[in-house]
Each structure stands twice: as C-alpha cells, then as structure tokens.
Amino acid sequence: MTGDGDAAARAAAAFAERFGRQADGIWAAPGRVNVIGEHTDYNGGYVLPVALPHTTRAAMARRDDGLLVLASAQRPEQEAVVPVADLRPGWPGGWAAYPAGVVHALAGRVPGGLSVLVDGDVPSGAGLSSSAALSCSVALGVRDLLDLDLDADALIDLARRAENDFAGAPTGVLDQSASILCTAGHALFLDTRDGTREQVPLDLAAAGLALLVVDTGTTHDHTEGGYADRRRECEEAARRLGVALLREVDDVPALAPLADGSLEGDLLLRRARHVVTEDARVLEVVAALRGDADPRAIGPLLTAGHASLRDDFEVSVPLIDACVEAASAGGAHGARMVGGGFGGSVVALVDSGGVDTVRASVADRFAHEGHPAPRTFVVIPSPGARRLT
Ligand code: GLA
Predict the structure, then answer these.
(1) For residues 177 and 46, is the Cβ–Cβ distance under 8 A?
(2) For residues 260 and 271, what is the distance between their CA atoms, to the nearest angstrom?
(3) From the CB of 39, is ligand 1 less than 6 Å away?
(4) Backbone angles phi, psi at 8, to 5 degrees
C-alpha cells in the first residue's frame, strides 16, 4: 500500500506519460475487508466492513472527442479506447468493464469523453473488493470532474450498476458502500435494507489486538456461476417463505416450512439458515464493539460465521478452511473467509504480540499442503473514497 502523497505523484506521472498532459484530478478509493456479515447484503441484511489502506487511484481528465480512453498502470497491454456512445454492457470487457460501466450508467452525461489512468494496490481476485475500489474511484472522479449532483448513495448505486449491469457480476452493495462510506478508525455498520449506517469505533490496537488478513492466492470471479447460484437460492427460499427478503425472517425456527423432506428443501433451508444466523452474528459483534466488552469476545462469532459459510452456504474451499484452522491453531481468537468465497482471503482476530505466530502457523500449513506462504497484512481501518489532488 502507498501513502496518499506518493500514490498521487505516481498516478500523476503515469497519466502524464500516457496522455502527454496533466490530469485534471486524482481520486482514490479503497478495497475492504468485511469483519462479519457475508452474503447478507443481497438479502437486505447487515454488514460490518472496514476500508483497507490499499486503494485504486484514478487520474482523470476530460476530453472533447467523445472517446473513453482507459489505461492501467498494472495492465498496460490491456488498454481500452471506445467512443462513449458505443459503450455496451460487456464491451469493453476485462478490467475496463468497471470504469466503462460507470460512464455507461451515467447515460449520456459524459458526451465529451474522458482519459483515465488507474493505478492500484488492492490485491485482485482476493475477495478484498479491488473491483469496487476501481469503480468507486472512477465514479467519484467523474462526479467531481463533471460537477454532477451525486451524493454518496448515488455514487454507490452508480458503482453497483457498473458491476451488475455492465461487468456482469451480480454483487450486492457491500463492497461499493464500504469503499465510499468507510472512515478511518471505524467499521461501517450498514443495514443494506434501508441504507441506515453507523460508524463503529474500531481501535483494536488499544486492546492489544490486530486484524490479520491472509490472501490465500486462490482467486475467485463473481461473474462465474457460484455467486449467482447463491443469490437465486436465497431468492427461492424467500419466495417459499412468503417474504420479499430473507432479512425479514426473525429466527431459525421460522425456516421450518422449507424442510419439506426434499433435497432441494434441505439445501434452501441451509442457505437461509446461514443468512439468518449471520445477520444475528453481525448484531452481536456490533453490540460487543459498542460496549465495554473485551473485543476478543467477537472471535468465536467470526469462527462460527466461517463454519456457517462452509457448511450451510457452501462457498468456502479446502485451502481457505485449512487457513482458518491454521490461524486458530496458531492462537487467533477467531478467523473466517472474507467476501463472496470460492477462494480469496481470510481475516483473523489475533493478539498484537501473536501476529507472527499466527503467520507462521498458516505458512506451515500451506507448506504442508504444497502451497507457497501466503501474503499477509495487518489491517488499519482506513478512510473511504476521496480526492487526492
Ligand atoms: C462479494 C459481493 C458483495 C457481497 C459479498 C459476500 O464481495 O461483491 O456484494 O455479497 O461477496 O458478502
């Protein structure tokens, strides 16, 4: 990760080199790690993310030839040059779909075109929302450059539509909300049903604790089927229960009508049980963090959340499970997979003095399974999307 000043200077230099002129401005948006509340967002439930210090920076300038030119410092060979009027969902594809989707979602409000150079350090495919960092940095930049009347909720919606409608990743609002709304030193407690939010102070270091992220190196892609399947299963469970969203189900006993003796009924019951219990876990974690309780108390809730994602929701993979086990064996108070699943990262709550032991435990386990030691870092809850220059 790079400090804002250095990051802005680097993006400015890369923009000038590519476009032969100065950028009109530079914006940054972070990736996120979700403390708890996984696969709840598209069910109208609760989430509790923190922003990472890792960001995507978008250096941008207006054009007058109607072209959208999208360049990436990380993927220089994958540049996209498309007339704004020709943007269509799926074209351009790849990384460029996210910024292009933002411009497309603005439906004709960017007629002159834009030059965009993105530079970032959010690990991609790691379940840490590199795509939301990308779309949110560009959304904020377009808003400022064109002086559009868009508040935080409108920016979140714009970035979400870019991902859902243009890039074809049927995500909820967790990642975009975290990237836009998070503040330094806090976790964002968000009710995705009505957008109500609260910044919950999260000073783990003061309690002698740290949030350790382990990027397992197994990548995921939510434009592939597993994530969309889970969404459909949740919708079907809600339909059978006669509610619009699983959020409206009060408790696990209320799921009984799903158990009709069929295999499908059993599967829908397990999917819905994850969502209902996960919403309850978010509320418990928030209550613990708001009160005077020792934050170590949230550890078992994180681990229970992982078991639910693994067994009921079935979105974990063996290497992620091994990583969670190794973190706990190494002394973590709790650990769980992060994000949509099918690979990606694990977050663990560890004693500040025990970070190295947990790292070593995970590295040993990876070596035992024939994998290189994974990349790890301690998360400092960081600011959301912002203008750098
Ligand atoms: C991905 C999606 C989010 C959310 C998480 C799971 O990160 O982009 O909207 O559904 O998975 O909590």
Answers:
(1) no
(2) 15
(3) yes
(4) -65, -40
Q: Give the angle 4-178-304 at the CA atoms, nearest 5°.
A: 125
| Tens digit of each residue's pLDDT (9 = 90 or more) over 297-326 | 999 999 999 999 999 999 999 999 999 999
Q: What mean pLDDT is predicted for residues 214-219?
A: 92
Task: Find out whether 349 and 326 touch, Cβ atoms under 8 Å.
Answer: no
b/e map of 285-302 (b: 16 or more CB within 10 Å)?
A: bbebbeeeeebbbbbebb
Residue 97 CA to ligand 1 centre (angstroms) = 18
Ligand 1 atom nearest residue 38's Cα: 12
Cα 124 to ligand 1 centre (Å): 14
Burial of 70 (C-beta count, 10 Å sphere; 0-12/13-18/19+):
buried
> What Cα–Cα distance (Å) separates residue 49 from each residue in 197, 285, 384?
11, 12, 11
User: Residues 176-204: what's their mean pLDDT?
Assistant: 98
Q: Which two tokens stand for residue 232?
A: 């459909």
> Does ligand 1 lie within 6 Å of residue 41's CB atom?
yes
3-state secondary structure 183-219: CCCEEEEEECCCCCEEEEECCHHHHCEEEEEEECCCC
Please state which CATH number belongs to domain 4-198+383-387: 3.30.230.10
Q: How far is the CA of 176 from the centre of ligand 1 (A)?
A: 10
The answer, as to whether pTM is greater than 0.85, is yes
Q: For ligand 1, is residue 278 a contact (CB within 6 Å)?
A: no
Q: Tell me which H or E stretch contains 76.
A: none
**130-145 and 174-181 helices cross at what angle (nearest 10)?**
50
Residue 75 has pLDDT above 70, yes or no: yes
Residues of the chain above pLDDT 90, percent: 95
- Residue whose structure tokens are 């970035």: 159
Architecture of domain 203-379: 2-Layer Sandwich (3.30)
Q: Which residue has 């639910």 as its token pair?
A: 308
What does the domain layout of the chain look like in residue ranges? 4-198+383-387, 203-379
Question: Is the backbone of residue 168 left (phi > 0), alpha (psi -120 to 50) or beta?
Answer: left
